[in-house]
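Subject: two folds for Thursday's group meeting

Dear M.,

Sorry for the delay on this. The cluster queue was jammed most of the week, so I only got both jobs back this morning. I'm pasting them in the order they finished. Each block is the input sequence followed by the predicted structure tokens. Could you check whether the formatting survives your parser before we put anything on slides? The first protein is the one we discussed after the seminar.
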Amino acid sequence: MATALDAIADNARVYFASGSSVPLDVLGAMAVERHRWSALEVVTEYLVEPIPLFDHPNEPFRLLSLQPSRAAASMAKAGAMDVIPSSLRQWGDLLARRGPIPIDVAIIHVSPPGPDGRFSLGVGVATPIEVIAEAPIVIAQVNPRMPYTFGAGEIERDEVDFFVEGDHPLVELPTPNIDDVTRQIAARVIELIPDGSILQFGIGALPEAVLGSLSSRRHLGIHSGMLGDSAVTLHASGAIDGSTKPLWPGKISVGLGFGTRPLFDFMHRNPEIVMLPASLTHGSDVLRRMVGLVAINSAIEIALDGSVNAEMAGERLLSGPGGQPDYAIAVSQSPGSRSVIAFPSTAAGGSTSRIVRQLAAGTTVTVPRYLVDTVVTEHGVAELWGRSLTQRATALRAIADPSFRSGLA
């Protein structure tokens, strides 16, 4: 470990894998040995929980986040965090040597080598595989608990400069609680998913509820940024065979796995799963070819003109765009595909409508109104594609909570 840490120069910019691939042993050692550096900028994406570095904001660690989350609240409070507005497809380009945020050191999390001597990035491939292609120094934490997955994440020994041993459970995304409102929304969404659809989905209770309710469908495919726990059960039902996919037919094609141990075990050496870089999971040239794609995402609020905010609650930044804009753009260019924005009609215990007259000044527009297709709440489905502003407002009012509809008139 000490030799690997010696390779991290003072004032370096250091990328580390996120999601379920956070290399906790290396980051813990960096926190203990923080006296080595006067300043380090660490760059990462979505985090489920705080990491050891966050106990030492500005001493020496500063965070540059591509996908902020509540896990980094202590860094934000200490003024040791900044955010790069960007979609998932852009992350690899941003961090490349030719990009505006070139990485000096990449810290990744890999499985033990397979019979052919190659290692695997396991459950986190999308951005890490693009970063290590150009990072001058690559440090790999080898963990026997990381599954070996096939595809773009299989790497040769000579692609890594330093190997360190680690042995800790992967970071898990807890199984979300699915309440009655979420089930009602999911029931409406699944009516929009015919047999043979190709699915993309984000993080949260709603995508899990939708996938958990599709067991009666057949010939479904998955091409998505991530794979969650519910995909394991859906696959066991026989609903997924990938037969309609023009690319990677018969395969589940994703960039990362984000869930709990049963998902990781399902992914381990599974020949039906192919892991891909973000340029392929979110690239418009690929997605436009996925005819019959149904992209299922959520939002914090939506205005009556269709503008979607999926990042801010009031003045608080809760998240980033992720892959939602990438899929919204691609679906708009693919006949026969559909983008679904689904969320509960209210927040704060029913005291606030999530359908609003207009987004407040300063609120981020995650998906502009001209890319919004279908919106679903527990009260119904609003089809916005090709509708006028007046028609959109009428359709969205109809699926707002009844107690707020008069205020939206």
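Second protein, same layout:
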Amino acid sequence: MRYNLIDYPRSVNRETYQLYSEKLYSSIKNFSEVVTIYSIGHVSNPGISDIDLLILVKDNTSLLKNFRAEMSAEEKYLFLHQPYACSVSDFKQTEMFTFLHNYNLVHGTEMRTGNQLAETDREILKKQTALEYLLKMYIQLYVQKKYRTIRVRDLLLHGKALIYDLEFLNIKNGKLYDLILEIIDWRNNWFKSTPSSIEIINWVENLFIELHSAFTTNSLFKEMFFPEQKTYQLSKNIRLKAGSQQFQVTQQGLILPFFHLVKSKKAVKLQNRFCSFQFDIPTSKSEMPTIIEERFRIERQIRENGNKYLPFFLSMTSSLNLR
């Protein structure tokens, strides 16, 4: 079946990443509210990799600057989303609950404590984190399949991250594992040997089959916890109903008749206005572990403070960002 493949990566050299990173650091440093700036990760595949930043601000202090709104199109290509931001106190609470790695201090005071959770709690959190990310990936693939539109760079960015989730779930072989190794190889060699459209489409189809099977037949994926058994609004056109009897997806609205002819992200945003989805997710009936309850509590606090003090930034919360 026909797909649109949009948002192909384009070649960008490392010097350009460095140039625009330094430009943004210089701008952020001018604000007295800012205590610390971290870059997260590294540019492993120029032209595909994006730049993630975390800004720490003084407690109970607002930072109302929308840095990304003033960026050029080329800068926005490297900074795919707003920086993350939170207060120093919130960061110290959430540090142990996230599995972000490769923090690089680029400005200000080092705020990492190095504190570690007990190993049992870490394993519980790893499993929860992995299942949330896999569910998010499934949701993205489901919508892209319905729209018959594949966002290629987005696929390369998020596909690579799945290797960490499989490690967290102790999955070290099988079809799903092989598919992730394949996309990592694509990333590493993209500008030397770009896979064909058919190869990309087949990969998406196969990954979707594996994830769909995991969520519908593998009891492991029923062990995800949610703050409450209710319906969450993940985005303007995507809802998630936690605590359903069975896994199912319902669609409302229509796919625009001309949609398959348009190759742009703007067209996807337009289509989202006419079509919505609800994902019904069965959940575990076992008692929620204390460490998961605590993470949900802290994330709720971080979201509330973010909405109040940092409205133009992303919160350091789970990939599903349950509200």
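Two things I noticed about the second structure. Residues 14-117+305-309 form a domain with the Beta Polymerase; domain 2 fold (CATH 3.30.460). Residues 119-147 form the longest helix (29 residues).

Cheers,
T.
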